[in-house]
Amino acid sequence: MDKLTFLSNADSRYIDSMYESYKSDPESVDFGWQKFFEGFDFGSQGGGPATETPEHILKEINVLNMINGYRERGHLFTKTNPVRERRRYFPGKELATFGLSEADMDTVYNAGIEVGLGPAKLRDIRQLIEDTYCDTIGAEFKYIRNPEKISWLQNRMESERNEPNFDIEAKKRMLLKLNEAVVFENFLGTKFLGQKRFSLEGAESLIPGLDSVIQKGADLGIEEFVIGMAHRGRLNVLVNVLGKTYETVFNEFEGKTTDDVEFGGDVKYHLGFSSDVTTANNKRVHLSLCPNPSHLETVSPVVEGIVRSKIDMKYEGNSSKIAPILIHGDAAIAGQGIVYEVIQMSKLDGYKTGGTIHIVINNQVGFTTNYKDARSSTYCTDIAKVTLSPVFHVNGDDVEALVYAINMAVEYRQKYRTDVFIDMLCYRRYGHNEADEPKFTQPVLYKAIEKHLNPREVYNKKLLEQGSVDASLAKEMEKDFRALLQKRLDESKDDEVIPDVNPMYSGAWQGLRKAKYEDIFVPANTAVSEKDFIRIANAITELPKDRKFFRKIERLFDDRRKMVENKVFDWAMAELMAYGTLLDEGKRVRVSGQDVERGTFSHRHAVLTLEDSEEEYVPLAQLNNGDVKFDIYNSLLSEYGVLGFEYGYSLANPHSLTIWEAQFGDFVNGAQTITDQYLSSSEAKWKRSNALVMLLPHGYEGQGPEHSSARVERVLELCAENNMQVANCTTPANFFHILRRQLHREFRKPLIVFTPKSLLRHPLVVSNLEEFTKGQFQEVIDDSYVKAADVKRVLFCTGKVYYDLLDKQQTDKRKDVAIVRVEQMYPTPMDRLRAIKAKYKNADDFLWVQEEPENMGAWPYICRKLRHSRIELEVVCRKESSSPATGYQKQHIAQQLIIVERAFETQAGKEVKKNIQKTTNEAVKVD
């Protein structure tokens, strides 16, 4: 078909492929296309009537171009904006754009076959695609690279022209949910004047839209939805979708508290909730709305983690039974990088959840920022193109169109297990909050909004014009619902406290309890019998003989087998044994992070790749004949998103050892929002605990400022009320026990461990078998080298610096200096530290020694904590600094040397200090 070279590549390929099929077998294409190609062949040879001439054939191609043009660009010319004129895009959709004219409108074209009409007039073809792609629903999908998905969407939309056709009961339900949404906001605005509620007004169609997601989803087999959203409209969603009682919300507006005096709580529009609802078709669905701070999109990875956890634990890998719903603001989805991180996770083996339903409340302004200043992309949802996910742009005033598009989106998600996006164009009737004046920054827009009917009024008017409902129906709905709200408000005045309707220790958390202070230091039974330990150790160090591994791997596993024989184990082996023994007990273990399968420092090798293929072998997964739940995933290059995901994963199942490891500990600063807003404070804000483990490689090894510090000081400044555990272990056995302890107590707390780098292969960093089989986690490790009566100086420290101090102590045989390791920095073992101080009663000096500068590391926290307990310490460390460490190896070595010398304070040390002070730029605090 070389005469069609003016076509686009896509058009040409499409028609060429059909033409080749026709030439091979005319019956393989539709009858209409048979006649089309017959006419083309005949016209090409100069014969046939006028309708079969090359000119007509070219017009047929132009009609195909028009159809495809509408499919690709029709969304640019829709009626989707309820309060603004749309921007103009060129070229447009005029007939001339496609080489057609009014003179062609009544000509019959075989191209009508493409849209299901058969041979049809251009007028009818154009009307169909105009109705489908340019009314109140705009669809973006042609960039999808899967022909089946494109075909499904085209057929689904074009067969119904994207025109909703709901029965009267469905219409009444939509009106009912709109009524609830509108009246609830109005009621709050009049009864609690001036209080922040982050109203949904202008976007009330969200409520019937979410209601339809649940109804349609349940019909398609979804049993549970997990929802994440920011504060805009949250109260409305809580009461009118999830069924939180109106009395509870009114109590929150009154400022009433729960009966738990230790619970600080959070503002009402940040809170979460869960419930069971019954659909119109009598199907029971569980709904959860996750709590979320004002960091708008922070909840997104948390939701995905919760869903994945439930897919793994509750639904046996079946993602069709549970779905995440993320509700975004237009400014947030376009502006916040965490959205991109979450979307990039959506198809990865370790993080996929079977597709997320994204709903954007597109009120066309972010706080005070116009959309033109909020993004460079055409649409706020252009991020969807990253994963080739379809987007439906819908006019928020057209509730039927919204429900229709949402139903289609849910069908697509269930069929293809991929993300879908609904961009609901609407507006915000008031400012960012109810006390804000939006006319300061958007005067023209808000003049239009003032005159604009709310979505309920718009829909009621439409139904009245159709004759679908009685004129009094909406008024009766409003009257009845307002009376109900008033009754609930009156009843709420009798409540003294807010009842706890979603207790922490229910569902997956059943059987666990809140930790009391006296529980924190009660030893957990984490020892493993020697028989079981050796059995598991042998199993995970045995490589199959019929597979070929790299020689270095074989030597590594030979070394590990020798550890079992010699009953002495290094750090990596202790870690793997912690996992193995938990798996053997029937627990689940999940590890993720950058390069965790091998380990950043090539120490773990939990996943082995065969030398002659890309096949992987996972020793831990072979335990109990493969009947264990061990998952380890190299993550995408993300900290924020992945840490949020793992937090959510642990939140949904406290009986899994869930671990996130940073590639280097300092990378955790990219996920600071999660540690601040969730990990450290969710118990205090939302009564939601967690068992997540964070492994942060830390230690000053001369690798410069970016790979030295995991920012111990930042972690410790978040510690209070026994909210989490912070440790810096120095022995493999202690690391083994602290990991196992996570699942061997009746309560759960997050655990942050500062893990080693160079110590992974240090000859002294080993533990013998007995420490695993008879030991337990030690919060403090005393010095066994010295006698208490001989000690004149006590050095307290944590982590790697211990081995620098130990080397000095042993080399100089300093039995007058004791080195005490604080393995758990928080909760701080104060009783144990007091006992240590009392034990060394002859000591004159008590020092805290650390590698970090004075304003970093554990010292700022330890100084305050011990001073309050009347344990006075001096400090030996680097001088305060704006950067964690030097980037020069020689300077690093000099600083380390002077820290050690100062800690022991020999005459030789004073001379060393004097000689190298100039070299270090006085970078060490020595007095």
UniProtKB/TrEMBL annotation:
SUPFAM superfamilies in the cross-refs: Thiamin diphosphate-binding fold (THDP-binding)
One MF term in the entry's GO annotations: thiamine pyrophosphate binding
Chain coiled-coil ranges: none
GO terms classed as biological process: tricarboxylic acid cycle
A Gene Ontology cellular-component term: cytosol
Keywords: Oxidoreductase, Thiamine pyrophosphate
Domain called Transketolase-like pyrimidine-binding: residue spans: 569-762
Pfam family for this entry, one: 2-oxogl_dehyd_N
Cofactor entry: thiamine diphosphate
Catalytic activity, EC: 1.2.4.2
Keyword Oxidoreductase tagged: yes
InterPro entries: 2-oxogl_dehyd_N (IPR032106), 2oxoglutarate_DH_E1 (IPR011603), DH_E1 (IPR001017), KGD_C_sf (IPR042179), ODO-1/KGD_C (IPR031717), THDP-binding (IPR029061), Transketolase-like_Pyr-bd (IPR005475)
Family to which this protein belongs: Belongs to the alpha-ketoglutarate dehydrogenase family.
Described function: E1 component of the 2-oxoglutarate dehydrogenase (OGDH) complex which catalyzes the decarboxylation of 2-oxoglutarate, the first step in the conversion of 2-oxoglutarate to succinyl-CoA and CO(2).
Protein name according to UniProt: oxoglutarate dehydrogenase (succinyl-transferring)
